[in-house]
Amino acid sequence: MTDFKPIPGGVLAAKDFVAAAVHCGIKKDKLDLVMIHSLRPAAAAATVTQNKFRAAPTYVTQEAVADGNAQTIIANSGNANCATGEQGLLDAWRMAALAGNATGVEATEVIVCSTGHIGDLLPMDKVEAGIAEAAAKLSRDNAELAARGIMTTDSYPKSCAAEFEVNGVTCRIGGIAKGAGMIHPNMATMLCFLCTDVAIDAKLLRQLLVDCVEHTFNCITVDGDMSTNDTVAILANGAAENETLVYLEDKGSDAFQAALRYVCTELAKMIAFDGEGATKAVTIRVTEAESFEEARAVAKGVANYNLCKCMFYGMDFNWGRVAAAIGATLLDVDPARISIEIQGIRAWHRGVPERFDLQAARQLLRDREIFVKISLGKGDAEATVWTCDLTPEYITLNAEYESAEPA
Amino acid sequence: MTDFKPIPGGVLAAKDFVAAAVHCGIKKDKLDLVMIHSLRPAAAAATVTQNKFRAAPTYVTQEAVADGNAQTIIANSGNANCATGEQGLLDAWRMAALAGNATGVEATEVIVCSTGHIGDLLPMDKVEAGIAEAAAKLSRDNAELAARGIMTTDSYPKSCAAEFEVNGVTCRIGGIAKGAGMIHPNMATMLCFLCTDVAIDAKLLRQLLVDCVEHTFNCITVDGDMSTNDTVAILANGAAENETLVYLEDKGSDAFQAALRYVCTELAKMIAFDGEGATKAVTIRVTEAESFEEARAVAKGVANYNLCKCMFYGMDFNWGRVAAAIGATLLDVDPARISIEIQGIRAWHRGVPERFDLQAARQLLRDREIFVKISLGKGDAEATVWTCDLTPEYITLNAEYESAEPA
């Protein structure tokens, strides 16, 4: 068998997890509060944004997973609880206490996330009522609702799940994520919640999550803007009752790793391709680099170069903009060793421009999926970055956004 | 008196310089070739893009100024002569030889610049005829025409001139520049040509130009995209007949430095504020930084954050996006020491969000000129960066661009 198999069930595909999503009134008329809960103690890990202006809940989340355990996730949309000073931190801790109380766990076992407008205090009365309501509605049936509940400008709910085997025992992992602007994770606002029933040591869980995020969520970009609230969190409750995975070398660790990578890759691609206003799904693959980091930096340079993004939108085969973007990274790359291919058409090969049929090439850009391949001619490392085009709709969406009166 | 005085005359304000601009047929029906020539030998300096995929002419220009002398500038628009391989380099050298021959100087005394589409070979027959025509039309009266001749998507010609005194002798400096997309000089395609009649040693000229570019052209950004062709070049022909400036400490060096800074600042601001599709002129000032470099990096981080650029366009007082942009630079800054002000309204002060009238604040964003002030609370260095908003027109302009069939 392969290492894993895609399955339905979304974020609740694994055993002994429940979820709920409610409208508590932060937003006008959309779901704005999601709760996910493990029915048994769970190992936990999380990575949060590196933004220096990061939001209050990211501090609470780091505290929650510091001991390797957490059992409840509470997340609101419509308000980022960022740049809210001392009060914002108190509010984030209060969310943890309320959600913990409602689900029968300590406040320090609660992962807290917020996404939305920066600079306003949370309406805590609404949040408090919402947490009580969500806890009352926790159920195995709410996977789809939870995926909808964390959406902001996403055009569709994003979830994915897979099953895999550890020593003959079937385990499951499922996740949900939201984008869709301000996506340049490092981490960059994207949120992703993963629930697995594999039994795994918290240290190994953390190691595998960090590595996975580097190759998935940290390989996507919508607009190059790093957010203040990004969080990827995972709960592993052991309900599958496999022999606990402790070391990377343990039999089954590779299967879990593969399933985790698959789910995160799918969710990351959904986020990138569903960027605000996007009309194109762009994959940029860089090969023959000296390191994964170098390959990713070149790919991200192209992915974030506005003139390339406009070209994908405009469907012009202006490969020179890709060359300019590579050069603009200021990395130690040599045009005389580089090859550039778009939709399988080689435009530049090791210092020499190639002849091709421009009309035919242009036609290939009418596909929704765009593939750019760049070979650096230096080594054997590679990386793939996923992104979208830049469209007038992105700007309209982000320009029409109206800040609300401060609370 | 002040150090310098603005004067008319553009790029030909200084003595013994002539210019011409012609249409040679690279573009459909616009001026596409400009020649500037000093009637006497001149000290020369130039800075070119750091882009690794930089265009062929930038190599020729570096060679030309390596010995500190140059006398003629030849520049075409409509074709960047970039990513053109060996033939591109030969073509750039041929442009130098043709322009040198036409103006009676060695090929190595010619600064060559190109701007336009990347990846196509220059139509050298047209360029050759154009250079001959331009040389025949060289005149003191063509300052305005030269400014128009280097325009690509600029909405208006950009020129500026000033006079200053060196030991009682009046000297002049004038310049022209072009933007308007792909502007993130480092150098990032902007071109700027400066002509001065001050007598100055080539070494000092170079030192002052490099320093000036750091604080002017390297402080502007339109879209964060670094171009392959950027060049700032200066010719100093000594026609003012002042005592030659040799050292920074020489009397009059400061006056020249001030006039140079003034002309370059004005041209840089014109480029930034005339970004493709721009509706806003945005100035970002960062103070209390540890170094100029740190201050500039924070200012550029905000200037290039697409969500901030959209906010300026949308005129929403969403100051949290400025906070997010500062944090996303990943520099060692502390929100608890930072202050953020937009249009004089303080929104965040040393860790605490401030109360303000959102409607009144929003009203202030209706101005064309937007001022953002950020204090880092760390040191006493500062920097100013000039930029514009990001608009649907930018994308339309860059998406509708059509590559021509390869030659």
Features:
11 helices; alpha+beta; six-stranded mixed sheet; 407 residues; homodimer
State the shape of chain A: globular
Helices and strands of chain A: which structural class? alpha+beta
Low-confidence segments of chain A, ≥5 residues, pLDDT <50? 183-188
Could you give a short account of the major beta sheet of chain A? 6 strands, mixed
Q: What integer value in Å does the Rg of chain A equal?
A: 22 Å
Order of helices and strands of chain A: EEEEHEHEHHEEEHEHEHHHEEEHEEH
Q: In which order are the strands of the major sheet of chain A placed?
A: 1-7-8-9-10-4
Strand content of chain A: 25-35%
- Show the largest interface: A-B, 72 and 74 residues
Oligomer: homodimer
Write down how many β-strands of chain A occur, each being a DSSP E stretch of 2 or more residues: 16
Mean pLDDT score of chain A, rounded?
90
The proportion of residues forming helix of chain A, as a percent range, comes to: 25-40%
Would you write up a description of this structure?
The structure is a homodimer of 407-residue chains. By secondary structure, chain A is of the alpha+beta class. Helices cover 33% and strands 25% of the residues of chain A. The first copy, chain A, is built from 11 helices and 16 strands. The first copy, chain A, has helices at residues 56-66, 85-103, 124-137, 143-149, 202-215, 253-273, 292-304, 306-314, 320-328, 358-364, 392-400, and strands spanning 4-6, 17-22, 33-38, 43-48, 72-79, 110-117, 158-166, 169-178, 191-196, 231-236, 281-289, 339-342, 345-349, 352-353, 369-375, 381-388. In chain A, the strands form 3 sheets. The first copy, chain A, has a 6-stranded mixed beta sheet with strand order 1-7-8-9-10-4, sandwiched between helices. In chain A, strands 14-13-12-15-11-16 form a 6-stranded mixed beta sheet. In chain A, β13 (345-349) and β14 form a beta hairpin. In chain A, α2 (85-103) runs parallel beside α3 (124-137) and α5 runs parallel beside α6. Chains A and B meet through α8, α9, β14 and α11 of A and α8, α9, β14 and α11 of B.
